[in-house]
Amino acid sequence: MALEDDVKIFDGKEIRQQELSEAQSAQAEPISQDQLDAARVIGSSLAEMTKQAERGFELAIDDDLLLQRRLLLCFAVSTGLEENAATLQVARTALNSFYDTLKRADPGFYDDIGNSGGLSFYYLAKRQRGDIERRIGQTFAMLCGKDGDPVCQELGEALYFRYLNMVRVELEAKGLAK
After folding, report:
1. What is the total count of domains within the chain?
2. Are 159 and 69 in contact (CB under 8 A)?
3. pTM
4. Residue 4 belongs to a domain
5. What is the pLDDT of residues 25-60, one digit of tens each?
6. b/e sequence 129-160, b meaning 16+ C-beta within 10 Å
7. Within a domain: 3
8. Does some domain include residue 178?
């Protein structure tokens, strides 16, 4: 396969128009202070869940696997909020609160997020057509250093579903889901 088959050049106009459309939608959506406060609580609560990323699966956890699980959680929080929040403003407020809480509570992990580049791989996997969850699992395995390992890929898929569900539950509990 040629390298050019793997590389796509995005038209900046199309992306810019989508951003403008989202911004206009966000401005048109009225939101109360109570909803903003609830969105901040959601973001903070989701950030606290990153500390518990090592729980729930009976596997030997090494530091790299834990880091990758936590990065996958961050990706799932971001996409889960974008896809499930009642409004764009709720999603952005919750996401800002999520990262603010991470920065205060776990500055080392917050720095790891920016230094790892792992989130970029997940976003690239999500943009490809096809089975997104499978691609996220493959990306998780690759980032764990186990590229092609079906067990690690399935773990990545399971974690992604689990983390997305956590986001949905938090939004629904506060009445801020679509």
Report:
1. 1
2. yes
3. 0.80
4. no
5. 544 567 899 999 999 999 999 998 877 765 655 555
6. eeeebebbbbbbbbbbebeebeebbebbbebb
7. no
8. no
